[in-house]
């Protein structure tokens, strides 16, 4: 009785059969969910990375520029296009309000992405595969991607980063 | 300083009553601001209308978040805490002076925050992630509000001590107040975390501290951000039990179980804030899995226990009144004409089936990749905090108005429909937002045609359909909320006074006759409903994991 003190002996009252069944079922499901996440680390192929380095905007910008100059193949709408070799380190810069560079990748190959921001928090949202990660200033987030489909993909910023936030869109091209 | 309520027989401390009234009024004012903002936002995000210009979109989004999610709910909760620790316990207010101080600080915070947002010096959204910066006045406003609320929480504890010492109630607290104790403990931890993050942020905005680390800010901020939502969940569940009791005389079939579930909330719930960092650089998988699952599932389990305990309280009472035919006779013959009952029941359904199910997917380390920062996230909390908490609080006011404001409910016919309009609107809105997010539509985004960007992207054409549902759901929910505000304001300021029990439009149910000896299940109908829920939950999980497995590989 929600507004009155409980009845005499409430603490020793036996739990009803159906309530007990429900609690047991709920507990089992919770435990399965817990172990499932660990199991996915071993057998699953989609896990958020935990490799992160501390960096500064200046340092990261320098690394990214060196990377862009090394593998640059052209330009698209004012943004350099870069085609790094498989299994290499890839640098992706987020800043108000663009992603740099445009990346050309090969399907089925691994790339070690280093993603960082030069100013505020940004959101890395890869469409249409719909994979979403956070991008921080001062943190070099290392995500090893293996594209499993070909085509053109958009990187949308999905963390508010000021007035031009909605114009912050980048591109990844995956070839066979 | 007391009056004795001629309807409930409870002693009411008039000084507490005044504070309950004032906090409740401020809650309604906050909600009104939040709802008007909501309408503007729906009409902006729905690209067909795209109403606001870009800077006003983010400004109004900030306004909406703070008023609808923070001010409305915390003002209401402070009113609820005073109510649960004085009126319910037949006791007195420990220090009305401090109650006034708390109220003044909170109103001051409310004014400063709304002022800075509307004048454009705090376009930082609700999370105000550093290094995004607002004017110092904004942070000061938040701090004043939090300090005020914290004083309110301490007064609640002080009231409890007095009631205990003066033996104004029996040996154990009533379940409603017990639930509020759990909420108040969580609130203390939450508001303290808020102070820990906002004080250095204020100093940083004043230029006294050089820089704020983005990662540290976000980690600590969510100790405030998500836990504050857990205060709401806990308070909402207390209101569910209260609703079951007032409307049908329902009591937990086992109070020990219900009380342990509240204790689980206190243990598990604060750490669960970690699920906001699942796709962030920094925390290790072990940290993420421990905090979000091992700990969070204590809270999830608690929610599932309440999800059985509240409907089974209703079922058991109804069965004892003779509604024993079949599985759902008790539900069919429930007092659906009582808006407090329909509000509580819809709140349970929406919170469980929409908020709960999606919350677990959002809170799992890997599936979070699909939803993080998409429109699914606000879709989820439309299910929990709006369809759940806000709707439950609305239901509670239908008793608060006659009992505390001593006024009849104006437009009673409208009041009967109000929970349905609001609940259905929010349910449609929440589901359509969740699906839009699943298609990758971002939250907090002005223009999903990306006009002015170097590239363009077109979402799956199916989203057009869900945007229409989004608009329909959003506008319906706004209408439902405005109906409620109209009823409340009219009743309180212009309504007819309640002179005694004959003026009560809502029933206060008498306790049902004692149970007859019986074998088998206490609440077979509730068990069926919860098993149905579990089925939906598992199917939804499997879909999400299957979908995750089809994505690019990442590690
Ligand atoms: Cu951005």
From TrEMBL, chain A:
It is found in: Cell envelope. Residues 85-176 form the Cytochrome oxidase subunit II copper A binding domain. Keywords: Copper, Membrane, Metal-binding, Transmembrane, Transmembrane helix. One of its GO terms (cellular component) is membrane. The chain crosses the membrane at residues 21-43. SUPFAM superfamilies: Cupredoxins. GO terms for molecular function: copper ion binding; cytochrome-c oxidase activity. PROSITE patterns: COX2_CUA. PANTHER family: CYTOCHROME C OXIDASE SUBUNIT II, NITROUS-OXIDE REDUCTASE. This is Heme/copper-type cytochrome/quinol oxidase subunit 2. The lineage of its organism: Bacteria, Pseudomonadati, Aquificota, Aquificia, Aquificales. The gene is cyoA.
Automatic annotation (TrEMBL), chain B:
The chain crosses the membrane at residues 20-46, 66-89, 98-117, 137-163, 175-199, 231-253, 260-279, 294-314, 335-361, 381-401, 421-441, 465-494, 526-548. The keyword Transport applies. Keywords: Electron transport, Membrane, Respiratory chain, Transmembrane, Transmembrane helix, Transport. Residues 25-533 form the Cytochrome oxidase subunit I profile domain. GO terms for molecular function: cytochrome-c oxidase activity; heme binding. It holds the Pfam family COX1. One of its GO terms (biological process) is aerobic respiration. One of its GO terms (cellular component) is membrane. InterPro entries: Cyt_c_oxase-like_su1_dom, Cyt_c_oxase-like_su1_sf, Cyt_C_Oxase_1. It comes from the Bacteria. PANTHER family: CYTOCHROME C OXIDASE SUBUNIT 1, CYTOCHROME C OXIDASE SUBUNIT I. This is Heme/copper-type cytochrome/quinol oxidase subunit 1. It comes from Hydrogenobacter thermophilus (strain DSM 6534 / IAM 12695 / TK-6). The gene is cyoB.
């Amino acid at each position: 009785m929600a507004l009155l003190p409980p009845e005499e002996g409430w603490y020793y009252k036996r739990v009803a059969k159906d309530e007990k069944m429900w609690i047991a079922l709920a507990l089992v499901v919770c435990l399965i969910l817990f172990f499932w996440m660990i199991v996915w680390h071993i057998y699953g192929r989609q896990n958020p990375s935990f490799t992160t380095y501390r960096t500064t905007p200046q340092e990261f910008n320098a690394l990214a520029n060196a990377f862009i100059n090394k593998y640059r193949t052209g330009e698209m709408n004012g943004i350099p296009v870069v085609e790094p070799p498989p299994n290499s380190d890839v640098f992706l810069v987020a800043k108000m309000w663009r992603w740099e560079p445009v990346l050309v990748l090969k399907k089925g190959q691994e790339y070690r992405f280093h993603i960082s921001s030069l100013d505020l928090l940004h959101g890395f949202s890869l469409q249409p595969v719909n994979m979403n990660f956070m991008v921080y200033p001062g943190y070099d987030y290392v995500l090893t991607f293996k594209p499993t489909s070909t085509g053109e993909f958009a990187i949308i910023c999905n963390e508010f980063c000021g007035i031009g936030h909605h114009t912050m869109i980048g591109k990844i091209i995956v070839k066979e | 300083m007391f009056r004795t309520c001629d309807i409930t027989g409870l002693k009411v401390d008039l000084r507490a009553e005044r504070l309950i009234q004032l906090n409740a009024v401020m809650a309604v004012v906050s909600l009104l601001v939040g709802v008007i903002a909501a309408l503007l936002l729906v009409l902006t995000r729905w690209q067909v209308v795209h109403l606001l210009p870009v800077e006003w979109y983010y400004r109004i989004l900030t306004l909406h978040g703070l008023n609808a999610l923070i001010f409305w709910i915390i003002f209401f909760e402070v009113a609820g805490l005073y109510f649960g620790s004085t009126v319910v316990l037949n006791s007195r207010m420990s220090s009305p002076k401090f109650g006034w101080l708390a109220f003044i600080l909170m109103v001051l915070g409310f004014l400063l925050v709304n002022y800075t947002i509307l004048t454009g010096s705090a376009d930082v959204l609700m999370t105000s992630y550093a290094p995004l910066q607002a004017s110092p006045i904004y942070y000061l406003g938040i701090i004043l509000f939090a300090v005020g609320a914290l004083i309110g929480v301490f007064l609640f504890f002080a009231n409890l001590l007095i009631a205990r010492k003066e033996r104004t109630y029996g040996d154990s607290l009533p379940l409603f107040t017990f639930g509020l104790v759990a909420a108040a403990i969580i609130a203390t931890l939450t508001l303290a975390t808020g102070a820990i993050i906002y004080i250095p942020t204020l100093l940083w905005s004043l230029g006294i501290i050089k820089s704020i680390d983005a990662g540290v800010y976000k980690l600590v901020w969510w100790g405030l951000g998500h836990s504050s939502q857990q205060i709401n969940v806990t308070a909402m569940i207390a209101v569910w039990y209260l609703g079951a009791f007032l409307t049908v005389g329902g009591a937990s079939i086992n109070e020990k179980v219900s009380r342990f579930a509240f204790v689980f909330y206190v243990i598990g719930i604060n750490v669960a804030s970690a699920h906001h960092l699942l796709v962030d650089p920094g925390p290790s998988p072990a940290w993420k899995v421990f905090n979000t699952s091992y700990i969070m599932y204590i809270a999830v389990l608690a929610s599932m226990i309440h999800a059985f305990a509240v409907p089974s309280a209703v079922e058991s009472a109804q069965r004892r009144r003779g509604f024993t035919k079949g599985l759902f006779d008790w539900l069919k013959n429930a007092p659906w004409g009582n808006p407090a009952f329909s509000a509580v029941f819809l709140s349970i359904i929406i919170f469980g089936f929409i908020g709960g199910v999606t919350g677990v997917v959002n809170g799992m380390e890997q599936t979070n990749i699909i939803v993080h920062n998409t429109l699914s996230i606000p879709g989820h909390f439309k299910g929990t905090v709006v369809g759940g908490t806000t709707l439950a609080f609305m239901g509670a006011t239908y008793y608060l108005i006659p009992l505390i404001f001593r006024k009849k409910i104006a437009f009673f016919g409208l009041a009967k429909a109000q929970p349905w309009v609001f609940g259905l609107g929010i349910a449609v809105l929440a589901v359509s937002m969740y699906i839009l997010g699943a298609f990758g539509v971002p939250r907090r985004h002005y223009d999903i045609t990306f006009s002015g960007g170097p590239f363009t992207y077109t979402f799956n054409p199916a989203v057009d359909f869900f945007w229409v549902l989004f608009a329909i759901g959003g506008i319906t929910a706004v209408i439902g909320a405005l109906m409620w505000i109209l009823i409340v304001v009219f009743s309180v300021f212009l309504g007819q006074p309640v002179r005694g029990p004959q003026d009560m439009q809502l029933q206060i149910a008498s306790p049902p006759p004692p149970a007859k000896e019986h074998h088998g299940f206490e609440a077979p109908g509730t068990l069926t409903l919860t098993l149905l829920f579990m089925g939906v939950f598992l199917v939804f999980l499997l879909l999400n994991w299957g979908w995750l497995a089809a994505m690019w590989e990442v590690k």
